[in-house]
Structure formats: structure tokens, C-alpha cells
């Protein structure tokens, strides 16, 4: 009797195990693993999931945006008040302890002088530009010069943590470090001072995620927003989604390195997926992707 009960128990265990195994292996054929191939195309499993409108809610990045945007002429003062205790970061710059460590001008960028900047500044005639990823300011300074040539009163907000990336000093040994604090922000500011652009270019030195959330909350919108910070899929995806929330209606969102192979084509995959979600059209201008909301 005992033996019969033990055998039936073992049979039941075997059936349960086999069924579990069969269900698990059949579900892996549609799991997101199939979308991690090196191909940049969007796998059917992702589009299936996201074609359900209520699933898109999981991709929200913030729910706390201002009801009303800050007026264009108040954008600079709003940043000074909110970020710099109502003072200018350029007052008394450079401070004595870094003065001897900065170069008079040290500008280096990537694709920072592409024709896309001229095209977009002429077309949009932006009052507020938000740049996400500034480094030493090559592209920001270029845009500031373009707006100045057109006689525009544009503010350029440069969102960057000004930490570069781990190991960036291997290639930028001349950017000094003080007690582990790399002087990227200070060298950027020195470049802006050297170019006489302090009235139109303002650093916002925090991580892109936190700044873009705050901009939304404060009502800071951009007519032109450039994305050029982290190039892996998740960084680009987060920056693009957050930036789109603060794009002024009719404005243009654009970004560098559409074609780079860096981070397994992270930027390419992120912007393509984003455009597909929102039914937006991507155009390509040189090395940049462009989304025009007008
Ligand atoms: C490619 S560089 C920007 C180059 C600049 N647009 C140009 O053309 O001159 C990327 C910059 O993004 C910044 N960055 C990367 N990830 C960031 C993040 N999550 N938050 C803020 N800045 C970030 C780095 O510090 C770096 O300065």
C-alpha cells in the first residue's frame, strides 16, 4: 500500500516536471532574448508587446511636467535661480585654485561642425537650445556662433555631468584633475569665456536624466534639442524620451552618431524604436538623425 502511494507520488512529480519543462521551453521561443541579436531591426516580439497601447505606459519617464512653459526671456534667469542661487557661474571665473590648470582655450568635439547645425539653426531660429552632452563645448559654441550671426537672442543650456567617461583622460591628458575631480566643467567654461559667449551659453552640470526631469517640472522647453551624451541603447533611449517631453511644439530633436557602431549601434536602435512608437519620421543629415515635430 505504502509502495503504491510512493509510486503514484513519483509519477505525479514526473508529470509536473515534464509539463513545466515543456511550457518553459515553448515560452523561450518568444522571449525578448530573440531581440538581442546584433541586427538593428526591431524584432517581432518587441513590436507585439508595444503594439498594445496600455503597455506604452511602462515607458513613461515622468509625470510631473509644468502646466505652462517658462517664457523664453525668463529661461536663463530661471536656470540661474534654480541651479546657481541666482548668481552667474561665470562670476569670478576662473577661481584661483584652478586658474593655472586651465588652457586659454581647449576645444575638441566629434562631428561638432556638421552642416546640420547650420541647417537647423536657420530653419528653427531657436530662442532656447538644449544640448544633452557637451564635453568641451565644441558643438555648443558652434551653435552659439551660428545664432549670433543670425542676430538671434538664443540661450544654449548645456546639460552634461562634465565627468566625461571612465578612462577618457587616456586621450585628454591635458585636462587636469584635482583630488579626483576632473576639470572638464572648468575647461568648458574657460572655452565659453574665451569665445565671449557667457551671455548665451550656460552649463547645467548634472546627469542628463535628473536635469531633463527637472526641466519638465520647471517648464523649460527647447526649440532645438540635441542629444549627444551616452551612446549605449539605454542612455540614448532615456535621453530621447525625456527630451521629447520638453520639446516645444514645432521644435526639432536631433542627435549625433546615428551610424556609429559604438555600443552595438545603441543610438540607432533607440531612435528608430522611439520614432516607430510615436509614428515620427527620421531624416538624416550627415552623421545626425533629425526628428522635426512641426
Ligand atoms: C560625445 S561627448 C559630447 C560632445 C559634444 N556634443 C560636441 O560635439 O562637442 C559626450 C558627453 O556626454 C556626457 N555624458 C555622458 N553621459 C551623461 C549623462 N548620463 N549625463 C550627463 N552627461 C553625460 C559626457 O560627460 C561627455 O561630455
Which descriptors would you attach to this protein?
single chain; 294 residues; alpha/beta; Rossmann fold; 7-stranded mixed β-sheet; 10 helices; 9 strands; globular; binds S-adenosylmethionine
Q: Helices, strands, pairings?
A:
Elements: H1 2-28, H2 44-50, H3 75-84, H4 96-99, H5 115-124, E1 128-132, H6 138-149, E2 155-159, E3 177-178, E4 181-182, H7 184-194, E5 201-204, H8 208-218, E6 222-227, H9 233-245, E7 247-255, H10 262-278, E8 283-285, E9 288-292
Helix pairs in contact: 5-6, 8-9, 9-10
The structure holds S-adenosylmethionine (SAM).
Question: Nutshell version of this structure?
Answer:
With 294 residues, the chain is an alpha/beta fold. It is built from 10 helices and 9 strands.
Structure commentary:
There is one protein chain. Helices cover 41% and strands 14% of the residues. A hairpin with a 2-residue loop joins strand 8 (283-285) and strand 9 (288-292). The protein has one domain: 3-Layer(aba) Sandwich (Rossmann fold), CATH 3.40.50. The chain is built from ten helices and nine strands. It is α/β, with parallel strands linked by helices and 294 residues long. The structure holds S-adenosylmethionine. S-adenosylmethionine (SAM) binds at residues 109-110, 112, 133-135, 138-139, 160-164, 207-208, 228-230, 235. InterPro entries: SAM-dependent_MTases_sf (IPR029063).
Amino acid at each position: 500500500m505504502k509502495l503504491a502511494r510512493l509510486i503514484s507520488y513519483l509519477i505525479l512529480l514526473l508529470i509536473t516536471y515534464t509539463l513545466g519543462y515543456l511550457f518553459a521551453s515553448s515560452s523561450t521561443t518568444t522571449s525578448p532574448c530573440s531581440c538581442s541579436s546584433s541586427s538593428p531591426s526591431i524584432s517581432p516580439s518587441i513590436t507585439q508587446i508595444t503594439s498594445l497601447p496600455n503597455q506604452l505606459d511602462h515607458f513613461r519617464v515622468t509625470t510631473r511636467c509644468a502646466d505652462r512653459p517658462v517664457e523664453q526671456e525668463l529661461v536663463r534667469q530661471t536656470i540661474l535661480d534654480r541651479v546657481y542661487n541666482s548668481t552667474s557661474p561665470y562670476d569670478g571665473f576662473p577661481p584661483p585654485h584652478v586658474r593655472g590648470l586651465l588652457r586659454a582655450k581647449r576645444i575638441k568635439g566629434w562631428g561638432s561642425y556638421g552642416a546640420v547645425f547650420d541647417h537647423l539653426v536657420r530653419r528653427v531660429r531657436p530662442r532656447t537650445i538644449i544640448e544633452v552632452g557637451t564635453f568641451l563645448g565644441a558643438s555648443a559654441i558652434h551653435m552659439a556662433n551660428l545664432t549670433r550671426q543670425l542676430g538671434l537672442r538664443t540661450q544654449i543650456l548645456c546639460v552634461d555631468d562634465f565627468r566625461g567617461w571612465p578612462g577618457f583622460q587616456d586621450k585628454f591628458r591635458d585636462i587636469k584633475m584635482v583630488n579626483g575631480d576632473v576639470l572638464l566643467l572648468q575647461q568648458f567654461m574657460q572655452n565659453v569665456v574665451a569665445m565671449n559667449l557667457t551671455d548665451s551659453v550656460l552649463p547645467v552640470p548634472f546627469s542628463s536624466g535628473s536635469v531633463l526631469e527637472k526641466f519638465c517640472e520647471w517648464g523649460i522647453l527647447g526649440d532645438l534639442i540635441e542629444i549627444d551624451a551616452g551612446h549605449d541603447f539605454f542612455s540614448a533611449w532615456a535621453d530621447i524620451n525625456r527630451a521629447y517631453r520638453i520639446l516645444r511644439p514645432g521644435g526639432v530633436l536631433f542627435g549625433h552618431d546615428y551610424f556609429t557602431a559604438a555600443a552595438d549601434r545603441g543610438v540607432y536602435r533607440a531612435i528608430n524604436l522611439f520614432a516607430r512608437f510615436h509614428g515620427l519620421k527620421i531624416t538624416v543629415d550627415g552623421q545626425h538623425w533629425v526628428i522635426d515635430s512641426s
